Amino acid sequence: MGDCIFCKIIKGEIPSKKVYEDEEILAFHDINPVTPIHILVISKKHIASLADIQKEDEVLVGKIYGVINKISEDLEFKKDGYRVIVNCGENGGQEVMHLHFHILAGKKLGTKINS
Known about the structure:
Layout: H1 5-11, E1 18-21, E2 25-29, E3 37-43, H2 58-74, E4 83-85, E5 100-105
Antiparallel strand pairs: 1-2, 2-3, 3-5, 4-5
């Protein structure tokens, strides 16, 4: 995990524009946003991907969804709506092998999946 960019962000080795942080979860603005609001939510525990979630991680993943809801309220985009995306593995578009949740908001999103 020493070369994981998200682990380095968690340790403070790489700066980020934080939106939320507690002892288990960190959320920050994506440096390459695809929507006006693009936030990444990660667990501080290194879990490589959705496919690597273990039974003991299920509570943490549930908590992440609660944090996503809180962020949508705090940043006032809950009412207008938003999308949460989790890419899993190379074919799923996952670029950083650390489980992360993309929150996309701030504009009307289409329904088509780009390939």
